Amino acid sequence: MHVDMWEWIVLGAVVIALILFDLLGHVRKAHEPTVGEAARWTALYVSLAVVFGVMTIVRHGGQFGAEFFAGYLTEYSLSLDNIFVFIIIIAAFRVPRLYQQKVLMYGIVIALVLRFVFILLGAAIIERFVWAFFFFGAWMLWTAFNQIKDGIEEGRERLAGELEEEEFTPPLMSRMMSKWFNVTEGFVGAKLVTRRHGKTWITPLLLCIVSIGTIDLLFALDSIPAIYGLTAEPFIVFAANAFALLGLRQLFFLVDGLLERLIYLHYGLAVILGYIGYKLIVHAAHGYEMASFLPEPGIIFSVAFIIVTILVTVIASIIGARRLEARGIVLNKDADEIDDIEPREAPHYDLENKRN
Description:
disordered C terminus, 69% helix, mainly alpha
């Protein structure tokens, strides 16, 4: 796939324009988004990704267009796991719903920049070392195994009525910032920094943004190798990540009360990651003229497989959730946690060794 420089420039300009539009049009004026508003903006961002995919087909052919759609669907599916963690972080910092859009947007921008670095590193490794596919494939299989293990453990706790809220441990960067800087005890409106007694103080809102942005690196360790199992083109990898991340803020407010119903999400993600792990290992084996009897799935089959997996996961989750609710079983405590936060100044999460 030959990508001209102007295509990178246009993609970068679109991403920057969408970020600025969100920052200046939505985030600057703090408000609590309604479900209808979140649904409309989610539909818009999904539509933009579809338009980009169609343009990729027109410009570079059906193969690369299919690779984009496969990568985008995978990243979007994995982003649901991100949302679970974002809910926990926002609840831990007790961020009022009024300011949550700002936290998510700035956190997503940090994540997008860090992922771009990961994408370039991944491209350089794959280009020079074919054996890296073995490593990435094994990592995908291990991640899939952990998803299954988490799903089984969560299901047992749910059935036993012992489902507990997950505890949040602030990432290293947030803990270091809390030691280096003076941190206010509560929020100062929507400010990230403030001046008090001639000194500069940072607010819990800034620490929450840094936590969301940096903790996304853990998800990048799964998602970046996963999408490289579907395409070897950095342009497509970045585009899929950009459109998935930029639509994450709207998706957060659309599904934060519905995530509790996706009780089989772990299993769906495990199937997708396991499939990609198999694909990566077979691709590497064929590169060394090994295991030629194992078929390497094509990209069209991959797109269909991912779509079917997502649909089956959602439908099975809805049916399973209804059955559990009929039995009076609590589905998930974390998903509703942020709804209890009042739009007021609240104490921030008590970070270790905080400077007063």
